[in-house]
Amino acid sequence: MVKDSELKASAQQVNVLVVIDTDYVKAHYPPNTNQSSPQGIDHNSQFMICTGSRTPPVGQGTADLQFSANVGDFVSFTGTSIYANSDDAVIIYGINYWQGDKVFNGFESDLTTRAGAVMPNPASQPTGLPANQETITFASYDSRIAKGGLEYFYVYFALYSLDSSGEKQNLYGYFYWDPSVKVA
Questions:
Q1: Is residue 2 part of a domain?
Q2: Is residue 149 assigned to a domain?
Q3: Taxonomically, which superkingdom (predicted)?
Q4: I want to staple 57 with a disulfide (CB 3.0 to 4.6 A). Which of 50, 76, 94, 145 is the partner?
């Protein structure tokens, strides 16, 4: 029989969903198409939701989420717009150390393609059920916790805005803000 304390010591997965209110960003910040010089933004348009934190997250649903992890834990960030990327879209493209202890190993983009991912069936209105299965690629930005401490870091994202035809998303700009992580 596995003891609860043994499980807590094992590496676990921490998932952070980042939702960006793109209307707010576009209303308060001009376009910025320089990827190497993203625009810093205030903390009024980001909402982060975390699962897998070692202790209850602080600031759940805000831009100032603090989650805890152990050395060896895996951390994945996934980004979306408040429109679920169907109108404006968001792609997280970087997470970099800012100050404090450097607790993360390097981050890398991870793409997962599912051949039978579900989408609402447009022919089955009003519910969209049964769902259609389609091939869809999902993206996350992943790392592993390297050491203990408190790290403040930047989350970089690209914002794409739906054009007037309602068919194409074009780059609006590159932006970032600064949450933190505490590692035991």
A1: no
A2: yes
A3: Bacteria
A4: 50
